[in-house]
Amino acid sequence: MKRLFSRSKPEGSRAPERREENRNGSTAGNEKGKSATGSNNPFSDAAAGDDPPAYSQEAPAATRSSSLRLSKITNADSPHAFLAYFDTVFVIDDSGSMTVDNRWSDVQKVLRSITPICTVYDKDGIDVYFLNHRNYAELGPRTDNKAEGGYYNINDAATVDRIFNETIPNGATPTGTRLDEILQPYIRSLEEAKRTGEQVKPVNIIVITDGEATVDPEDIIVRHARRLDQLGAPSHQVGIQFFQVGNSSRAKEWLQELDDQLKRHGIRDMVDTVTWGGFAGRLFKRLSPDTILKTVLGGVVRRLDRKTV
Questions:
Q1: What pTM was estimated for this model as a whole?
Q2: pLDDT tens profile 113-130
Q3: Where is this region: Disordered (predicted)?
């Protein structure tokens, strides 16, 4: 994005020391912007030292139009081209249970692979938030449409490694609270944009979690979906994808119930839930390019839901 809601370019991202301030982790808060694995893990085939694949496609010029036609932003030659048109935000569960069965390191590997793919098409990179941990270098009022306490404009796997290695999973699973903190400033920017005529880049929010939320996001999602409807925002303006890591049956049931409950509210279809063991009911043990594609954009491009993985 440009003007009021534009991102600043990263200046050599580094993660902060755990619970201590280090301003090398991301762009300044008031700048404008934007091991061995367990057998029950869905990512158990990935080796700890594997580097993500190289991507060399040229990124298309992104449109700022709110009437973006999603059917035109992907093609066989460039299957990840859609990333140029969306901001990609990851919300990572860092509750205590994420230390079980190497879930934490497995999520780290997933982000190591996704980050360079995203950066090919969006030079701003990805933003990462944790449910509990805050980047203390980025606390305080912001002038853009992002929540405080995150890591912004991450564009390489090494930065992902530093952030994960210096963050210790601990605490509960306040999924609803963190989503509310992220959605509030973004939707305020849409309200302001409606008055000024600016365009705000659509966002895709990927929530990676291993368990049932201690702060349920249902009411929060419903409230923000209705705000989007009141603003007349395009159906692809905000997408939220819940991705289960681990094979907890309770977490799977919770995510499926969340999906069902949201449908009963009659709100816009902006949420996807993907549980362990199942794209179309099939087990997966390693994220392929197709599963990464679906994970990143599954909450926005509804036609991908029908794709066989």
A1: 0.74
A2: 889 988 999 989 999 999
A3: 1-67
